[in-house]
Write a structure and sequence with these properties.
The complex is a heterodimer of chains A (about 110) and B (about 110). Chain A is an all-beta fold. Chain A is about 0% helix and about 50% strand. In chain A, strands 2, 4, 5, 6, 9, 10 and 11 form a 7-stranded mixed sheet that branches. In chain B, strand 7 and strand 8 form a beta hairpin. The chains are: A mainly beta (about 110), B mainly beta (about 110).
Amino acid sequence: EAGVTQFPSHSVIEKGQTVTLRCDPISGHDNLYWYRRVMGKEIKFLLHFVKESKQDESGMPNNRFLAERTGGTYSTLKVQPAELEDSGVYFCASSHGLNTIYFGEGSWLTVV
Amino acid sequence: RKEVEQDPGPFNVPEGATVAFNCTYSNSASQSFFWYRQDCRKEPKLLMSVYSSGNEDGRFTAQLNRASQYISLLIRDSKLSDSATYLCVVNELRGGNLIFGKGTKLSVKP
């Protein structure tokens, strides 16, 4: 069974550009989460979808970040415009109900 | 004060050693507790959940002290393959808002 997959695995963009990260959760998982780890910090929660609805977006840092999950399947996280401090690794995760949360390998973003 | 604090590490131990990691959390209302393992440039993977009664999985033993807001992980008979970063994780609600510590790096040497 495929795990959580994320694309791209690595991205280097210039400050001010836009990047869109994609996440495909494990099939059948209604819950989808985004987390990120910036340099030197701990992994931090960004938001949580249940199907296509945003259950909790309290961790989104500012309005340059937009997450969507149309149709309740895959999700995208768009950063527009990107700033230097957005560099880090963005993890997507999914779970079935309140069971174990499985993480993808992450999308490594470098803003230069 | 950080929400989840861990030993900074790194821990460098020989094969066969016993090593213990500690973690404290700030929110007394926290509901569930975990240890995750993360290999270099990989995703975090659940190692084990932590229960108030303590629990064991092979060479790994986890303990939770709610009164002290303290979590521990003990690894016995360390293997080279145990080398990784160990993340203490707390969930304050029954949902997906996991709160991570910064992690403790373990290196097991031959």
